[in-house]
Design a protein that fits this description.
Shape: elongated
Number of helices: 5
Helix content: over 70%
Largest sheet: none
Radius of gyration: 15 Å
Distance between the termini: 16 Å
Amino acid sequence: MAMESLAIFCWVVLNAAALPHRRLLLPPRRRLLRDSTILIILGASTLFHAVVVANPGTTEASHALAAAAGFLAWVAGVALLLLALTVDRFPAEARLAAQLLEVVAAGALF
């Protein structure tokens, strides 16, 4: 419950000023930076929660799965950050990644 709340909080904070029709007008670099920030924070918090916080009634396998998911989310965020920094060299790929993340975020959060 806490991780889903953190994801929604990050999404709302980073999109607070952007209306839905204005969000599509953001340049791909800003969209990728915003989404990479969300993934890095969410991945790091998931990894921290899986490694440090001991929940009673959970198994080692569930901790390992949560740690792997957190690490993969963090790696995806870092990859998006690198793509955001090189958006001028790869404009088509950056535009496609930004559009794909918009669709995933809209379907996953609402």
